[in-house]
């Protein structure tokens, strides 16, 4: 995404562009890593062995069927970020301590750094890139922008996914329920008060 | 517009900077008050919000290339050791390993101002860099790191600054553990002993604060790529130009050949103000293997090796008259710099916050065998304010004066060092509205609550710099379609820099914010702006954007005057259109003017104007805390914090609130949870992760009231904004500590105030 688009009402098409790199549209993924026009770079990438694995895996990511070959120790977040180029999901601790890597697995929120890719066999994964409905933001995304539920934004994809899962399970949470439900997502910028506002506002949006 | 060169002097942390800067030659007309503005001061959603909530924002952490290689660092497992041998043979045989560098195969590169090297044969803390492996994948690099055999000779070590300052302590550097330069610093005014003698009440106390670690969520990381002689570094940094210059000097290449890019970054809090060794190591290997290299530190490395808030061992002595007049303030302090030079002092609040004629301070910044300190959100002020405000409450209690009245009594109307007035000091107003908002009148005698849950109120004040300074520049471009681009060499740490830049341009040019693009964080594309430290970003760059936008407006006016054949005085600029004042139909849109002037792009570079001389520039504020302490479990719950501050003009109410919330909660986290624990027998950090190093979660969130008592500070700049990042955190721990005391009636003199300390203070079994 170019910086030229950095204004409030930028074309949402740009997000689709970003959201669709990687998973969307590609059915079979072999050692992945996309786009490279430089011939020299191409050659190197073919001779190297970016996480080539031997274990076959099929799952759904953001609604698309994906087949991949992974190592037994490849984590779900590595599959998403390194193989499928879905870099919206972040990693801050890589050991199940902070929630930055939260994604939905069959609708429930999980820490994708703490889960093996192979354990997602046959399941359906939703990442932050898969939340939009065409050009329409998910109400949680909309609320996070309006209520300013973020600062640096690095924990934000995880917060957004945790909020989506929370609201799926409890569409009208109290403030206390939001605080309990989101306690597994650390925000070092401590945008917590406005994250709470965002989740409560999203709850209202989803009701109508 | 004409420019001139001036001498620019300002405070950056506790350092006095003296530099030259280019500023507008003529006085800039100050921006009108917020009530007369349409965009500035309002709650405008941040313009990069969409990218951040969709995952579209590309952070350094997300940057990759098809042929990228990955770096990992081997770090010393010992607090103090010398390396006698490094054997990489096994690691090199591992399939996928590309290159390993270390002290025996790499040219010497000086580090830490000559106190060490990129790879030093002596490692002075657990986590110091020993070797760097580049491999096809991060996992292979990590595996290779474990296969490197290093022989170390372990040395006696010392981790506590008070021990390290002793004569017989193991010497971490040849010159001893208290460096000649800034190791021991003193300050005094008046006659401290005389002040104590004339005091009716004297209190002396010791305070301890622990080392805290920044732990921003985005890892410290770099992606480096050479295109022939041109080096590009995507770096998660708070200072693109400072990283550029250090890397150029480390690699001995021209600054023009280094481009540093930080489009998005996931927090820094002071830790990311300097270039990392990892960037240089990656650049060295990348050049040799002719492939881009990415290096990402893991959470453990971040807790060991890239900065922290130093601890403090403070002894404070205060003397006061029966009527509450402060007679003397004295401080000695030991702070741990870690293994290399860093600021570890804490004396500024005591020296400058309250009126007192007799002050003396003596501080030791001491080397220890631990990771080096770095600036951490209001370095020194957070620990210093906690101790000062704690003891002042004790003194007030002895004098039977309400703690708030005691502060008001000792209000300092002018800066006591320079005897100059402040550009603005609305602290008394802040006290008044803050006290009202918290319900200060409900504060009871300390420890008087019945029942096992006891409630308490406390307060602490704040002083900080944060006025910004020249040099800072911004280029404003207007295109033929009337859209505008602003380029500025700053970076957005999550504070909303993108948004305030767009707001200023939108305000001046009266065009919708959607028509404004902001490009920051790229040394090759933007004019210079300072590193984002010291709460100086907004106050430094917004006046430059303002000046640039005004220049564009001036060009449009002058163009319109020629095109419409009307003298400029008769023209009115409104909403991106210019018309003749008594013939409104004789008008031109900005876009038309640009087109008719046969310009493709109108360009102007604005600069930050000079602050009015003869004043001291500071920010002030007070925070009030309302807490509950469960005396059975020792748990503390912060119900509410009121933050009332004088920080100049509000630029964006929503992002301002957000940053204040963040500062307050980070302060709460420091006051109640955070502590890096080093095992004194092994010298190893035992909680180098986010599970054992406790950070506030959403469950800790109190109600927070943010009250701004100030308008634009016109003496500071034409925009009149000051920084808020650091003011927000400074008083929180002190206010909470005082509220805890007020609740339980027993003073806890060390941070963090954990439940076990509360129970011990109450003489209960832990
Ligand atoms: S990155 Fe997965 S929980 Fe922290
Ligand atoms: S927004 Fe920065 S960590 Fe949450």
Structure overview:
The complex is a heterodimer of chains A (208) and B (766). With 208 residues, chain A is of the alpha+beta class. Chain A has helices at residues 13-19, 39-47, 76-83, 139-147, 156-169, 175-181, 192-207, and strands at residues 55-61, 64-70, 102-105, 108-111, 124-126. Chain A has a five-stranded mixed sheet with strand order 2-1-5-3-4, with helices on both faces. In chain A, 53% of the residues are buried. Mean pLDDT of chain A is 82; it is low at 1-50. By secondary structure, chain B is of the alpha+beta class. Chain B has four domains: 3-57 and 469-607, Aldehyde oxidase/xanthine dehydrogenase, molybdopterin binding domain (Aldehyde Oxidoreductase, domain 4, 2-Layer Sandwich), CATH 3.30.365; 63-155 and 214-304, 2-Layer Sandwich (Aldehyde Oxidoreductase, domain 4), CATH 3.30.365.10; 161-213 and 307-411, 2-Layer Sandwich (Aldehyde Oxidoreductase, domain 4); 413-464 and 619-766, 2-Layer Sandwich (Aldehyde Oxidoreductase, domain 4). Chain B has 18 helices and 30 strands. In chain B, a hairpin with a 2-residue loop joins strand 25 and strand 26 (583-589). The longest helix of chain B is centred in the last third of the chain and has 28 residues, at 537-564. The mean pLDDT of chain B is 96. The structure holds FE2/S2 (inorganic) cluster (2 copies).
Task: Find the CATH superfamily of the largest domain in chain A.
Answer: [2Fe-2S]-binding domain
Which distinct ligands sit in these coordinates? FE2/S2 (inorganic) cluster
**CATH T-level fold name of the largest domain in chain B:** Aldehyde Oxidoreductase, domain 4
What name does the CATH topology of the largest domain in chain A carry?
DNA polymerase, domain 1
CATH class of the largest domain in chain B: Alpha Beta
Tally the beta strands of chain B. 30
Helices of chain A, by number, come to 7
N-end to C-end Cα span of chain B: 69 Å
Major sheet characteristics of chain A: 5 strands, mixed
Radius of gyration of chain B: 27 Å
Estimate percent helicity of chain A.
25-40%
Biggest interface pair, residues each?
Answer: A-B, 80 and 79 residues
How many domains of chain B? 4
Amino- and carboxy-terminal Cα gap of chain A: 32 Å
- Give a count of the beta strands of chain A, DSSP E runs of length 2 or more: 5
CATH architecture of the largest domain in chain B: 2-Layer Sandwich
> How would you classify the helix and strand content of chain B by structural class?
alpha+beta
Question: What can be said about the biggest beta sheet of chain B?
Answer: 7 strands, mixed
């Amino acid at each position: 995404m170019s910086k030229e688009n950095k204004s409030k009402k930028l074309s949402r098409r740009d997000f689709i562009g970003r959201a669709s790199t990687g998973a969307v549209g590609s059915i079979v993924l072999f050692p992945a890593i996309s786009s490279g026009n430089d011939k020299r770079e191409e050659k190197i990438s073919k001779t190297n062995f970016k996480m080539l694995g031997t274990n076959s895996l099929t799952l759904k990511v953001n609604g698309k069927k994906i087949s991949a070959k992974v190592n037994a120790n490849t984590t779900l977040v590595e599959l998403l970020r390194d193989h499928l180029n879905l870099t919206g999901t972040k990693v801050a601790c890589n050991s199940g301590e902070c929630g930055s890597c939260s994604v939905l697995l069959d609708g429930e929120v999980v820490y994708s750094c703490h889960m093996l890719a192979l354990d997602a066999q046959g399941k359906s994964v939703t990442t932050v890139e898969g939340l939009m409905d065409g050009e329409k933001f998910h109400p949680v995304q909309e609320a996070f922008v309006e209520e300013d539920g973020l600062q640096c934004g690095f924990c934000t994809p995880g917060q957004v996914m945790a909020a989506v899962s929370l609201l799926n399970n409890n569409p009208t949470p109290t403030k206390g329920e939001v605080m309990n439900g989101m306690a597994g997502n650390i925000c070092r910028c401590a945008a917590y008060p406005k994250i709470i506002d965002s989740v409560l506002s999203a709850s209202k949006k989803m009701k109508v | 517009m004409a420019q001139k060169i001036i001498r620019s002097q300002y405070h950056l942390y506790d350092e006095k900077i003296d530099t030259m800067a280019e500023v507008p030659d003529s006085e800039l007309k100050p921006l009108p008050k917020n009530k007369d503005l349409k965009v500035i001061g309002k709650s405008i959603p941040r313009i990069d919000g969409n990218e951040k909530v969709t995952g579209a924002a590309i952070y350094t952490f997300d940057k990759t290339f098809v042929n990228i290689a990955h770096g990992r660092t081997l770090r010393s497992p010992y607090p103090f050791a010398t390396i006698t041998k490094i054997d990489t043979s096994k690691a090199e045989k591992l399939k996928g390993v590309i290159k390993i560098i270390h002290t025996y195969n790499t040219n010497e590169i000086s580090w830490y101002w000559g106190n060490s090297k990129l790879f030093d044969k002596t490692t002075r803390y657990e986590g110091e860099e020993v070797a760097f492996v580049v491999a096809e994948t991060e996992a292979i690099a990590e595996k290779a790191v474990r296969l490197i055999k290093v022989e170390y000779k372990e040395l006696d070590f010392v981790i506590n600054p008070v021990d390290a300052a002793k004569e017989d302590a193991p010497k971490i550097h040849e010159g001893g553990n208290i460096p000649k330069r800034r190791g021991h610093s003193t300050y005094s005014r008046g006659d401290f002993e005389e002040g104590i003698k004339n005091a009716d009440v004297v209190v002396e106390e010791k305070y301890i604060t622990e080392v805290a670690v920044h732990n921003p969520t985005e890892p410290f990381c770099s992606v480096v790529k050479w295109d022939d002689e041109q080096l590009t570094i995507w770096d998660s940094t708070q200072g693109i130009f400072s990283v550029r210059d250090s890397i150029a000097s480390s690699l001995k290449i021209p600054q023009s050949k280094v481009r540093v890019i930080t489009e998005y970054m996931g927090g820094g809090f002071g830790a990311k103000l300097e270039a990392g060794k990892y960037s240089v190591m990656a650049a060295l290997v990348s050049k040799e293997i002719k492939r881009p290299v990415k290096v990402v530190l893991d959470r453990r490395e971040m807790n060991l090796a890239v900065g922290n808030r130093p601890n403090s061992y403070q002894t404070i002595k205060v003397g006061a008259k029966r009527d509450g007049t402060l007679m003397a303030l004295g401080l000695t302090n030991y702070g741990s710099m870690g293994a290399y030079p860093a600021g570890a002092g804490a004396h500024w609040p005591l020296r400058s916050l309250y009126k007192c004629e007799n002050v003396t301070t003596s501080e030791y910044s001491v080397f220890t065998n631990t990771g080096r300190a770095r600036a951490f959100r209001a370095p020194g002020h957070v620990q210093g304010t906690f101790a000062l405000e704690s003891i002042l409450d004790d003194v007030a209690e002895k004098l039977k004066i309400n703690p708030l009245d005691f502060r008001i009594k000792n209000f300092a109307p002018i800066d006591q060092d320079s005897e100059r007035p402040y550009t603005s000091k609305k602290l008394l107003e802040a006290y008044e509205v803050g006290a009202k908002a918290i319900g200060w009148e409900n504060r009871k005698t300390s420890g008087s609550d019945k029942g096992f849950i006891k409630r308490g109120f406390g307060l602490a004040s704040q002083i900080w710099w944060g006025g910004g300074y020249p040099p800072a520049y911004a280029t404003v471009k207007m295109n033929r379609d009337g859209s505008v681009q602003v380029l500025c060499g700053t970076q957005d740490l999550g504070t909303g820099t993108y948004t305030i830049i767009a707001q200023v341009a939108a305000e001046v040019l009266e065009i919708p914010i959607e028509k404004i693009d902001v490009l920051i964080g790229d040394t090759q594309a933007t004019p210079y702006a300072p590193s984002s430290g010291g709460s100086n970003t907004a106050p430094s760059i917004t006046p430059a954007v303002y000046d640039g936008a005004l220049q564009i407006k001036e060009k449009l006016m002058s163009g319109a005057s020629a095109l419409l054949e009307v003298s400029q005085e008769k023209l009115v600029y409104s909403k991106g259109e210019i018309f003749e004042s008594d013939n409104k139909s004789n008008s031109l849109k900005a876009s038309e003017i640009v087109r008719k002037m046969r310009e493709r792009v109108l360009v102007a570079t604005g600069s930050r104007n000079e602050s009015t001389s003869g004043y001291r520039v500071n920010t002030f504020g007070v925070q009030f805390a309302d807490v509950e302490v469960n005396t059975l479990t020792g748990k503390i719950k912060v119900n509410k914090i009121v933050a009332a501050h004088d920080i100049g003009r509000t630029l964006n109410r929503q992002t301002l609130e957000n940053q204040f919330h963040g500062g307050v909660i980070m302060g709460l986290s420091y006051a109640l949870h955070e502590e890096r624990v080093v095992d004194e027998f092994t010298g190893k950090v035992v909680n180098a992760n986010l599970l054992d190093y406790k950070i506030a979660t959403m469950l800790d969130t109190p109600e927070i009231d943010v009250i701004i008592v100030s308008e634009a500070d016109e003496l500071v700049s034409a925009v009149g904004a000051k920084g808020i990042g650091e003011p927000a955190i400074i008083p929180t721990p002190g206010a909470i500590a005082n509220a805890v005391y007020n609740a339980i009636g027993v003073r806890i003199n060390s941070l963090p105030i954990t439940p076990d300390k509360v129970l011990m203070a109450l003489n209960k079994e832990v």
